[in-house]
Write a structure and sequence with these properties.
Layout: E1 2-7, H1 10-25, E2 33-39, H2 45-55, E3 70-74, E4 83-88, H3 96-99, H4 102-107, E5 111-115, E6 129-135, E7 142-147
Parallel strand pairs: 2-5, 2-6, 4-5
Antiparallel strand pairs: 1-7, 3-4, 6-7
Bound molecules: adenosine-5'-diphosphate (ADP) and magnesium ion (MG).
Length: about 150
């Protein structure tokens, strides 16, 4: 199932992230959810992720994980998920994920958001939600495509 969006500004991208977060929070299943984000630098992956994590109920400031590779936030007990992970795969190889606790994280009820997900495609679950970001015509336009099974 594919869904195409055109956001006209950052606020609309934030809104889209919020809607997806609300939908995922409604899931009762105990399996993990992986969001696989791809798109050029500046296309909005981090903006989307920060809004998404905030909408899950995280109040802390969410920095870009580019320099830390992975950040984990504990989710409120009111959700059926334990943690949300923000992973920047730009500089890593699939094998590096082992040291980051990837296997445990995807085997449990966590939400994982991966920027530059194409770099670790081989280890992503088949039911990952792929989100592609592209610059639009206008300076603040972005084309965002959600692709899921
Ligand atoms: N429609 C939009 N959606 C998302 N970001 C936008 C949009 N319009 C402008 N921007 C700006 O583009 C930049 C996107 O940067 P960022 O989210 O860090 O991208 P990436 O993580 O893909 O490199 C931010 O400065 C953001 O404010
Ligand atoms: Mg980024």
């Amino acid at each position: 199932m594919n869904k195409d969006y055109l956001t006209k500004n950052t606020k609309e991208t934030t809104q889209l992230a919020k809607e997806l977060a609300e939908e995922i929070l409604k899931r009762k299943s105990k399996s993990s959810v992986v969001l696989a984000l791809v798109g050029d630098l500046g296309s909005g992956k981090t903006t989307f992720t920060q809004s998404f994590i905030k909408a899950l109920g995280i109040k802390k400031r969410i920095l870009s994980p580019t320099f830390v590779i992975q950040k984990r936030f504990k989710l409120p007990p009111s959700t059926s998920f334990a943690n949300v992970y923000h992973i920047d795969a730009y500089r890593i190889k699939p094998v590096d994920l082992i040291g980051l606790g990837w296997i445990g994280a995807i085997s449990n009820n966590n939400i994982l958001v991966v920027e530059w997900a194409d770099k670790i495609k081989q280890v992503l679950p088949k039911d990952a939600i792929w989100i592609r970001f592209k610059h639009g015509k206008g300076e603040t336009e972005r084309r965002i495509t959600l692709n899921r099974r």
